[in-house]
């Protein structure tokens, strides 16, 4: 039990610290690499919640896909590599006050509210359950996503292609 | 209802999906000069989808696909409205985008998204349908790729959209945490039985309002509107200002009637809050802020599309005002206003689309003396603007009467007074455009030739705007008959 809690603390600290780095780092490339630690930290937190499938998907999609895309974008874009400080930092006092207010409100919410919790469930693999749910209860959203992706594909091709036509 | 049985109640949506695929494939075989056929096919598909939806009025209300969506007359009403608004947009777009099949396909995908959006019965479906409308809209906003303003519009729309959707999803996670359900009806039941902490519920509702408010351009989530409206191609601006907004309001009503409140025992369409929070008061403040900010900002606009953008914000304020009291009367008033708003707002944008290529400008100052240079078009624009103000005998007046009477019946007098004051403010900037067109002499007296096609479509939008101002009984009866909400999994 002790080891599990220590591990959880470690993962939580890594996740939050790297998320902070993403937000506060002045170099884009540092932010991009810090984002990797954040994503992996999330995956580890999902494991703690017995969401094994979600954890693997998180790694495959976010770390393996989106993050690599961001890194390529950063590295291959001309001169973005050492661009510094493009984001305008709002006045520090305002930021701290609003962040603190938000933290207090959300903290109150989290502590006061009796969540419909199902903690301490025994660990069961979720992949087959998710598969069955997608093809039964969640069939409609599953199918609709494919139409959405078709539209997105057409839109992306339209935006990315050059206008000059070959004669 | 099970997935297989649900299919027979899902025919308009299936038909739209098939037409999307068919148009993509047909376009591949069309020669360059025949590309306009895809536009006609799109119009035909929308007409058929409208007819198929209309025929669904015969079905008894039910929940479909294991409780993912519901089919009730309220949903059918907005489905017809959504398909009709896209149909008008296809005709508005024809002169500009004659041979762009992918443009029409994207419009159809958005329409499918709007169809789903008005039928949602699950948090997941809310998110999915809003993204379906949203993501494609970002592409449409940036459709003029070489125009910097269009690019800016697209990017701003995307960034604001992503942020507000994220906040909304966070709010959903609280709702899910409190109730353990994603189905709207089950959430309603769980809220009634478990009584979660009001503060937590209030915060969750406020977070969700960020996403819904962004979709309908409610203050303080309206920042994107002026830039997106100015930068997007005019047909797309017109599209954003009516279709997605109307279904956004429908989604808002769905959210209010399930997560926020439940049907009361006193009347068929009276609602009591699930958990007493000060939501009506909050909505009242937001409604007043929305219309005031929209109207006051519109006063200073030099660009006609920006002016119409701010006026669109103000009109959302009027609709929100009725949703404050929300009961059967108010919902009917909002539904009726959506119809009226469709004709008058499309009308105004269509005139802008007609005139802009001739004047090569969207500045109001360049409309000087339009009344002498293109009399019919200028008069039509004047009628649409008077209707937007809410001056009799136009449809806008009747729409506003219903909205205000719904508010006054529930004794929100202050709210109604502020709404009327706002209408007075709006008269100033609408009338300013009319003054520029008719009272100022033009420097250049050349007549502007308006093609017959433009005139015909203007009439199509003008006649309902005038007729509904004098004889609106059938429309309001149809709207009242369409008020049927289904609650269930």
Describe what you observe in this structure.
- The complex is a heterodimer of chains A (167) and B (489).
- Chain A is an all-alpha fold and 167 residues long.
- Chain A folds into two domains: 1-86, NADH-ubiquinone/plastoquinone oxidoreductase chain 6, subunit NuoJ (Four Helix Bundle (Hemerythrin (Met), subunit A)); 127-167.
- Helices cover 72% and strands 0% of the residues of chain A.
- Chain A is built from six helices and no strands.
- Chain A has helices spanning 2-24, 28-48, 52-76, 92-112, 127-135, 139-160.
- In chain A, α1 packs antiparallel against α2 (28-48) and α2 runs antiparallel to α3 (52-76).
- Chain A is extended, with a radius of gyration of 21 Å.
- Chain B is built from 20 helices and four strands.
- The longest helix of chain B is centred in the middle third of the chain and has 32 residues, at 148-179.
- Chain B is mainly alpha-helical and 489 residues long.
- Chain B starts with a helix and ends in an 8-residue tail after the last helix.
- Chain B is globular.
- In chain B, 73% of the residues lie in helices and 2% in strands.
- In chain B, α8 (184-194) runs parallel beside α11 (234-260).
- Chain B has a domain at 278-489.
- In chain B, strands 1-2 form a two-stranded antiparallel ribbon.
- The mean pLDDT of chain B is 90.
- The A-B interface holds A 105-106, 108-109, 112-116, 118, 136-141, 144-145, 147-148, 150-152, 154-159, 163 and B 3, 6, 17, 20, 24, 64-66, 68-69, 102, 105-106, 109-110, 112-113, 116, 122, 124-125, 128-129, 131-132, 135-136, 138-139, 142, 145-146, 174, 177-180, 190, 194, 196-197, 199-200, 203-204.
């Amino acid at each position: 039990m002790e080891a599990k809690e220590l591990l959880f603390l470690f993962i939580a600290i890594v996740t939050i610290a790297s998320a902070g780095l993403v937000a506060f780092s002045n170099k884009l490339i540092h932010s991009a690499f810090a984002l990797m630690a954040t994503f992996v930290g999330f995956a580890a937190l999902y494991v703690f919640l017995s969401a094994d499938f979600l954890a693997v998907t998180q790694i495959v999609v976010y770390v393996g896909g989106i993050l690599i895309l961001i890194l390529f974008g950063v590295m291959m874009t001309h001169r973005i590599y050492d661009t510094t400080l493009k984001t305008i930092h709002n006045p520090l006092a305002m930021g701290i006050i609003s962040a603190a207010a938000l933290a207090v409100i959300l903290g109150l919410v989290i502590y006061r509210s009796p969540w419909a919790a199902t903690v301490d469930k025994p660990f069961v693999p979720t992949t087959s359950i998710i598969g069955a749910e997608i093809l039964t209860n969640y069939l409609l959203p599953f199918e609709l996503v494919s139409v959405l992706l078709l539209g997105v594909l057409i839109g992306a091709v339209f935006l990315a292609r050059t206008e000059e036509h070959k004669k | 209802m099970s997935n297989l049985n649900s299919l027979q109640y899902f025919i308009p949506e299936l038909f739209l999906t098939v037409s999307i695929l068919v148009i993509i494939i047909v376009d591949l075989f069309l020669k360059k000069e025949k590309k306009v056929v895809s536009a006609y096919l799109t119009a035909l598909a929308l007409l058929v989808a409208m007819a198929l939806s209309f025929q669904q009025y015969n079905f008894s209300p039910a929940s479909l696909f294991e409780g993912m969506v519901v089919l009730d007359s309220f949903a059918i009403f907005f489905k017809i409205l959504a398909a009709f608004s896209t149909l008008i947009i296809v005709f508005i777009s024809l002169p500009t985008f004659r041979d762009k099949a992918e443009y029409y396909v994207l419009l159809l995908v958005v329409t499918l998204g709007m169809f789903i959006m008005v039928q949602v019965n699950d948090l997941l479906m809310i998110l999915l349908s809003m993204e379906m409308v949203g993501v494609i809209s970002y592409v449409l906003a940036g459709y003029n790729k070489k125009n910097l303003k269009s690019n800016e519009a697209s990017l701003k729309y995307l960034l604001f959209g992503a942020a507000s959707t994220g906040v909304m999803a966070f709010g959903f996670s609280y709702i899910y945490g409190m109730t353990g359900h994603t189905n709207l009806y089950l959430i309603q039941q769980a809220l009634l039985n478990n009584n979660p902490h009001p503060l937590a519920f209030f915060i969750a509702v406020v977070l969700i309002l960020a996403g819904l408010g962004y979709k309908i351009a409610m203050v303080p989530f309206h920042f994107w509107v002026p830039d997106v409206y100015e930068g997007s191609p005019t047909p797309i601006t017109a599209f954003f200002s009516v279709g997605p907004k109307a279904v956004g309001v429908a989604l808002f009503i769905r959210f209010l009637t399930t997560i926020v409140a439940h049907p009361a025992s006193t009347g068929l369409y009276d609602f009591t809050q699930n958990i007493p929070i000060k939501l009506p008061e909050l909505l009242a403040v937001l409604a007043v802020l929305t219309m005031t900010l929209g109207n006051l900002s519109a006063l200073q606009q030099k660009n006609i599309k920006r002016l119409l953008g701010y006026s669109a914000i103000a009109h959302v304020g009027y609709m929100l005002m009725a949703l404050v009291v929300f009961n059967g009367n108010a919902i009917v008033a909002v539904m009726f206003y959506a119809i009226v708003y469709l004709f008058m707002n499309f009308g105004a944008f269509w005139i802008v689309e007609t005139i802009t290529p001739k004047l090569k400008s969207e500045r109001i100052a360049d409309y000087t003396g339009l009344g002498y240079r293109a009399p019919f078009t200028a008069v039509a624009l004047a009628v649409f603007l008077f209707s937007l103000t809410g001056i009799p005998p136009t449809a806008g007046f009747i729409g506003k009467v219903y909205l205000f009477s719904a508010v006054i019946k529930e004794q929100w007098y202050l709210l109604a007074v502020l709404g009327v004051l706002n209408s007075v403010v709006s008269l100033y900037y609408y009338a300013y455009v009319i003054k520029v067109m008719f009272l100022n002499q033009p420097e250049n007296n050349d007549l502007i030739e308006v093609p017959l096609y433009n005139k015909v479509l203007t009439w199509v939008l003008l006649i309902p705007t005038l007729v509904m101002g004098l004889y609106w009984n059938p429309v309001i009866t149809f709207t009242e008959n369409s008020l049927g909400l289904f609650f269930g999994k």
